[in-house]
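Human
Can I borrow your eye for a moment on a structure tokenisation matter? Give me a protein, with the fold worked out from its sequence. Write it directly below this note and I will take it from there.

Assistant
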Amino acid sequence: MPYPTPASLLQVDLHPGTPPILHTDTPDDASAWAAEHHHALRSLVTEHGAVLVRGLHLRDADHAGAVLHRLAPALMPDKEAFAPRQSYTPGVYSSSTWPPNQPMCMHHELSYTLQPPGLMLFACLTAPTTGGATAIADAPSVLEALPTELVHRFEQEGWLLTRTYNDEIGAPYAEAFGTDDRRAIEDYCRANAITFEWQPDGGLRTRQRRPAVTAHPVTGRRCWFNQIAFLNEWTVEPEIRDYLIDVYGAESLPFNTRFGGGDPIGPDVIQLLNDTYTAHTLREPWQAGDLMLVDNVRTAHSREAFQGPREVLVAMAEPLRPAECLPASEVSAG
């Protein structure tokens, strides 16, 4: 039986403006390489926040899926997804369906759920012609760069996600919850601190309050951890926002975010958040066969606009404990 590889034996390239890159050359058995090195890779992710592995020659969904399962045997199902995904193997999904010409701004995956993943895994099978990088940003650095008064308010109130599920924009509720059984959905919502309201037309509206700042489960560092900007109405293009308001109404948008107390978040705050992310962004264009591991608490990630085909598989692992994902006031009250 091979001994685990120490992280010190895996040398990563560190260059300004790019994520840490680990070069290897494993054309034959990437799955065995992943099994041998997964402890060392996980240590590198904790140290750096993310690692891009280049040289595994991932060929297809089955090949990449085998590698992902070796790196994180207990992959998570995708619950409460905001956009549809294709499932390849258990726990291995396509990237979220999102227009190629529209960037997906920085966020922490499923940070609005009660048990978000601590680890994200991305496998590139087809690289786009231009753009399309999965860029990253260091959450503690973003937190330190934000105005103290704004951070204090979000720490006190948390942030609120409102969703109005429909069959046209985003994932329908049956897909997001994995069932169309209303009782099962209601039970899930109650168990996961989500308030819900069925609409006269059969739709579903939900609200959930989550912390904007959390402590890293390993290092204890305070991290800006949320999807406040990503899922806010002011992040989308103005003409798209106007269209959505015309169709659904300002209070029934498919998704939107607010301060935890319910006050709207203005465009100036969203612009500030996105500008702060931009100032701390690292990027490296995908190459076919690449693998990237991202600490989902320490590191936010985005998807840049692109041209040409792009196929990047996604897996999630290491769910956080529920107490780490409730505002402090709710934890102390519980």
